Amino acid sequence: MDPKKSKDRPFYELPENVQASSRIIQDARTSLRTVVTKRPFTPRDEKRTLFPASTARNPESRPASAFSLNSRHFDGSDSRPVSGAKLSPLDHFPEGSDVRARAEIKCFQTPRAPTAAEIENAILAPKPPADPNRPLSRKGSRQKLYNATSVDGGGESTTSLRPRSGSSDGRLHQDQGSPDADVPRRVSSGPKERTLLPEERGMADGKEAAPRVSSSMGVSSPPRTGGSHDGEQRVGSGSSRKSSSAGKSRSGSAGKRDSIDVGDDNFFTDKVAPLIEAMSALGKNRDNEKLGELAEELYTVLDTNKKLTKSYKQRSSILKAIFKLLDVEEPRVMLKLARLILAFKVGGNNLLNVCKLVFKVSRNEKNDQEFLEGNVLDLLIETIQSSDHVASCEALIYCVGAVKFLTGNPTILKRLAKKECIETLAGLMHNIEKTNRDNGRVSDQFGHILVQLCAALRNLADVGSGRERFLQTGVIESLSHLLDAYPNDCDLVLYISRIFSKVTLHTDCCTVLANEHSCYKSFIHLLNRHVNKEDVVVRVCFVLGNITAKNDDARRRLFQETNAMPTLLSVLKTFHNLESQKRSKPENVTTNGRHNNNDGDGAVNTIDDVLIKVIRVIANLSINDSVGPIIASHVECVQLLLAILDSKDIGSSEELILNTVATINNLSYYTTKTSAITAHQNTVAQVLLKLVMTDNMEAMLEASRVFGNLTRQRTVRDLLSRQKVDEIMITLLDSGNRELVFIACGVLINFMADEDKRPLLKKEGGIKKLTEVLRDFGREDWQLGSVVCKVLCNYSTKITSTNSCFGEAEAQDLVDVLVEYLDRETALEASLKDEVDEDLKDYLCETWEADFCPVASQLLKRIEIHQSCFEPLEAPG
User: Fold this and answer.
1) Which end of the chain has fewer surrounding CB within 10 Å, N or C?
2) Residue 727's closest CA among 711, 701, 748, 698?
3) pLDDT confidence of residue 155
4) What pLDDT does residue 159 have?
């Protein structure tokens, strides 16, 4: 290399064989940076509704948020205890039919009263034949012949029914071997309709019937079991059973069951029936306060004695009595009655209606306090856990919907979290996801549940332990899969994006989501599909900005996703055009384009918010060293960014402008031949000039960072010099803002490369200001001290005399500071004496030795060489 050429090379220029085209910018802290923004504002729902007011769901296919509900909607037949066997009706064929008759006969273990549904069927049934012993028949039905089972004290013995040999009319007769072969018997759906056997007649005539407890609500004492009833038949007829199984049953399990039944009878008669009778009377008198107290007492009695089970024999009677009280309008009483129904774990239509009942109460915030009493919250969670999401889909919609409403109350929210509500909802979500996967398609009905579920999780994400629970239960991964499965469900997409916008504020959640490779495709697909929905787009872009803020692998994956960059630019262009249209109609901005942000510090334009989030994603992507140059070469991207800067004012769109400038700074970092920033560098500089002239310190800082990159080109330096930007940078040395001073020094380094621009530094007092910066900030920030020395080194490249170059007083002050700071003991002792952090101590030592000393030594040596006209310095004493 030519020594003369090397000597004339400006300080900021590195040898050609050294690859560090942006080293000055890096040293001046203008390296690539992620962009920070606020989480999108989530408005609080004014009304508690099943679906958002903006839902696109078809009203005819979605469950209703408002409905009428009373006692008539509850079905008594569904409250039958599980121990009772439902008797299937026998069909009848006319005598002489050529069709072979078959009947499936099931015997009751416990006789029961006919239900309302059965009475209705009996009314609609065809007229029975004259022969009372002939079974009923319906047109077009067929009969089947099976064994009829008769329970005997816990054991089983069978007597077969079949057509008489040689008979062609299909009449049914009992087997000749049966003890009751000669006694015709009519089987029907209720004990009152059954023809009594001789033993039963004898029992009815010769024995006193068991006592019954009656009330105005028709509640009776429990009927006798099949075992005890059968035993009484045999005693009355004088017959006995020789089988060992029957004997064992009578002496063992049957006797035990009989003793339990007697205890249940006494408990019901003494404890339960009086309460139900009193509740019935109060229900008629509309005494809601007392009715609520009795409902609470009934629950306590049943729960204490462990009778709130599906196997309790009087469950059916109690539920029927409660159903008749549900016309009450008092929410407190309704909730206490619903509590009893839920505790009995009803199913089918009754489960649906009790969930609707709870949903109805939870819709009013004034009723929230009622859910804090008792264990209603536990029962709701248990219902979600135990209900089949396929068979009880609609019931779960309302049950989870009620939980969604309740999570809006901070007190209830914390309590639900402690009761593992997140784990319960996560389990339901996993089950739905598995069912969809097994079926090979998604269910729209499940979508209704998922909307309620995700809305509840959105609130639960704010709980202190919410994030950890989300990670432990795999909620984040499942939500990502749901986005892929339900991309057309706007409500579901909105709630999931709201959840992600909360949890991705934390690095651990960002990492989990970034590792879900399918999420990138899902997010890009959602942006394409819902580009006109601001609330969805702003959150999806915010989430993408979060996961690309610290994860370089996420940046690469997102950029490599098909149509990723075109989609982001399409969103940017769409909303920029929309803003331009609204700007032409200013009356629309106030009514349609603004809302209060979540910090309550002013108004934020919703379109601006979308633009901020999209630009942030582009800024974060450009940090990747392979992605950044490609984006910087994208002409449309650069033009859109410049158009936004040109059309916006720092006073009304501060965050948007700052983020846009930060993105341009990242792109200006790459000085490739195809860079659109380099191709339009003069235009970029012109647009940024207005920011340097403002009183906004942040705007000046961001614009100066870009100038630090752009001023590497002589044409840009000439343009900015004509606009007195170099003079502004000298003025900024007095700002007192260390970061702004740092950036100003970085720009001045480049300006001092031009000989014609150097005199301005001395003229504007820049030498003295730089020396003061070195004295004030040097010991605390050796990097800043380094860039100060670089400015002075570039300035003094053509030095012949220290006095003429710096000024006599200025040169002496500068030498004093440099001598002091280049002495290790003097410089570092002052820097480290008040510092306790060992890592920071190591950092200060490294930056002093690596950054400051080489440049400061070169500057001091240059000053001393050209200091011949100075008086010799006295040696220190």
Assistant:
1) C
2) 748
3) 40
4) 39
410-418 and 444-460 helices cross at what angle (nearest 10)? 100
Task: Tell me the whole-structure pTM to 2 decimals.
Answer: 0.73
Q: At a CB cut-off of 8 Å and minimum separation 6, what does 103 contact?
A: 90, 91, 135, 143, 144, 145, 146, 161, 172
Residue that the structure tokens 């099931």 belong to: 106
pLDDT at 177 over 60: no
**Tens-digit pLDDT profile for residues 649-696:** 898 899 999 999 999 999 999 988 999 999 999 999 999 999 988 888
Tell me if 581 is assigned to some domain. yes
Mean residue pLDDT of the chain comes to 77
Of the two residues 644 and 266, the one the predictor is more confident about is 644
In contact, 780 and 818? CB cutoff 8 Å: no
* Dihedral Cα 252, 255, 261, 266, nearest 10 deg: -130
The three-state (H, E, C) secondary structure of 638-691, written as one string: HHHHHHHHHHCCCCCCHHHHHHHHHHHHHHHCCCCCCCHHHHCHHHHHHHHHHH
Position 11 pLDDT exceeds 70: no
- Tell me the two tokens of residue 362: 């939870």
SS3 771: helix
Task: Based on the fold, state whether residues 663 and 579 are members of the same structural domain.
Answer: yes
CA-to-CA distance for 308 and 312, rounded, in angstroms?
A: 7
Element counts in the chain: helices (H) and strands (E): 45, 5
Tokens 């009878």 identify what position?
A: 265
Domain annotation covers residue 351 = no
Please check whether residues 689 and 589 belong to one and the same domain: yes
Where in the sequence is the domain holding 90, given as residue range(s)? 76-261
CA distance linking residue 623 with residue 175, whole number of Å = 90
What tens digit of pLDDT does each residue of 469-501 get?
Answer: 999 999 999 999 999 999 999 999 999 999 999
| Mode of pairing for the β-strands spanning 594-596 and 603-605 | antiparallel
Q: Measuring CA to CA, how many Å separate 89 from each of 141, 225, 263?
A: 11, 21, 33
Residue 573: how many other CB atoms lie within 10 Å: 16
Q: How many domains does the chain have?
A: 4
Read out DSSP for 600-635? -SSEEEHHHHHHHHHHHHHHHHTTSTTTHHHHHT-H
